[in-house]
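Dear V.,

Thank you for sending over the compound details. I've combined the ligand you provided, 2-acetamido-2-deoxy-beta-D-glucopyranose, with the protein sequence from our construct and run the structure prediction for the complex. I'm sharing the raw inputs here so there's no ambiguity about protonation or stereochemistry in the SMILES, which I know was a concern on your side last time.
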Amino acid sequence: MIMSWGWPFLFSILLSFSTAYSSTTTIFTNQGIDGFLECLAVNSDQYGKIEVYAPKDASYMKILQSAIRNDRFKSPETPKPLLIVTPRHESQVQATVNCSRKHGLQIRVRSGGHDFEGLSYTSPLLVPFVMIDLANLRAIDVDIEDNSAWVQAGATIGDLYYRIAMESPIHGFPAGFVTTIGVGGHFSVGGYGAMMRKYGLAADNVVDARLVNANGEILDRDTMGEDLFWAIRGGGASSFGVILAFKIKLVQVPPVVTVSKLTIKQGAFEIIQRWQHIAIYEVPKELFIQVQISRTKFRRNLQAELQIMFLGPSEALMHIMEEKFPQLRIKKNDCMEMSWIQSVLLFAEFPKKAPLNVLLNRTTEMDIAFKVKSDFVTTPLSKREFRKIFNKFLEEKQFAAVLSPWGGRMHEISDDEIAFPHRAGNLYVIAYTSLWGDEEGAQASQEHVKWVREMYNYMSPYVSKSPRAAYIGLRDLDLGFYKINTTPTYSEARIWGEKYFKGNFDKLVKVKSEVDPSNFFGDDQSIPPMTLQSES
Ligand SMILES: Cc1cc2nc3c(=O)[nH]c(=O)nc-3n(C[C@H](O)[C@H](O)[C@H](O)COP(=O)(O)OP(=O)(O)OC[C@H]3O[C@@H](n4cnc5c(N)ncnc54)[C@H](O)[C@@H]3O)c2cc1C
Ligand SMILES: *[C@@H]1O[C@H](CO)[C@@H](O)[C@H](O)[C@H]1NC(C)=O
Ligand SMILES: *[C@@H]1O[C@H](CO)[C@@H](O)[C@H](O)[C@H]1NC(C)=O
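Below is the predicted structure of the protein with 2-acetamido-2-deoxy-beta-D-glucopyranose bound, written out as structure tokens.
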């Protein structure tokens, strides 16, 4: 059933509708677009003319591509925005919302562009839409006295880590690894990283937010109410409004942390099998041990890399490892002591001597395409099972499976504290990734995508069931999406909604029905309002 949402299906609509798309564009040129552009011009304010780009403009492609982080969505066939608006002030976001709604245009919002299915800048539904690119709204105001910061949605987590580190060597923030990820998209899906066992997700540390609702009003935590504030922490923001900024609580980091990367070529099954228990339940919250499985350099075999981050000095880490995980035989010179911000650089794969300001660089060298799927593991697997799974992994040329440990703070927070539902009972999340280069061509990309799907099917006996849970941050349209030209229905959305949100899905639908009953903020996998349902 789920396979009917498969790649061949998606691919064929992309191709067959690319012509239909341009004709839709023409219709909107006469109706919505002109009206929209006039409306924007009228609404230009003391902050100047609102910048808007059409496909005929020289800068359109440059701006569009500036934050496409996956080559899968760089092809000419990928459906593109009718217009791109790049606001420089909050009021310009309001004007864009007001004008789009008035002229019947949909919007998509992009902060960092890391959506795994590109939903911030494209759509398999081919609904004509205006893209709001928030890259210019990226101010960060760190208040060390108050242990807090206001961060605009278009800032990257690299910007945020950098600003915090400039203010204090003992403050930090728990969020993801790749520093070009946008705050707007990341905090609203959850956001996990090396400090999640100690401090939870990025979203767990959000204390206030500013958003533009479907009426074009700016709301904060007080005026939006607790239910909407709950929904935008883990429910994805694209169903509810345009996030302008989040206020976060900073966390304490020690002046010295310890980082280690251990490559295990022999006996990896045994190590990983033990890891499933030790890294989650036995070691302190300050210790994060992530496993990455990939091919060895010469591609014949698999290796497991243990990526370790400890909030404390190496001496203390050695003690813990000797007691809890002697099988690893970690040695003192496997460990590197550094500041927390240096560990951020290391985990983001920057070269050792890179200056801190590489964190501010939004340009990436990644010329790769990828497809990702996610699973949660709730029951430990045996050595034999890992052996079988590794053999399956060997079928794909270029892949990585990353196993990120839960436990600690992640298990203390209840499933419905915020909209992100994956807490106690989960041992770790797996992200399966197949990577390939553009030059391999369309046929090859279909093969790679097919492999990830097969891997996912193969894993079904070993992972969470009813629902087979998934993390919305690792968005996957194979789980389902709305059909073209239909009113989003609860029964469709539940297919993927319960995987992403488990028991929180119904509350998300309720909040959506209250704050956006006409579904102005909708995309291919957004939360449907009950108010539109034609089904009984
Ligand atoms: C290379 C890579 C590494 C990653 N590593 C991690 C990781 O370590 N941990 C983790 O938890 N996740 C990780 N992710 C997933 C990432 O957290 C999500 O893709 C996240 O949604 C990206 O946010 P963004 O702003 O960069 O993306 P965008 O593509 O800009 O947005 C993602 C979604 O959020 C919506 N959105 C964005 N901004 C706003 C806004 N201001 N208001 C309303 N809606 C908005 C978009 O419309 C879209 O639906 C990774 C992704 C990639 C590609
Ligand atoms: C958008 O509409 C809202 C609500 O009607 C109004 O408060 C706001 O001033 C408008 N903003 C702009 C910039 O058009
Ligand atoms: C940013 O990173 C890109 C890719 O690595 C690089 O080409 C570029 O020179 C960097 N820009 C700056 C200002 O450092």
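A first observation: Residues 1-30 have pLDDT under 50 and may be disordered.

Warm regards,
I. M.
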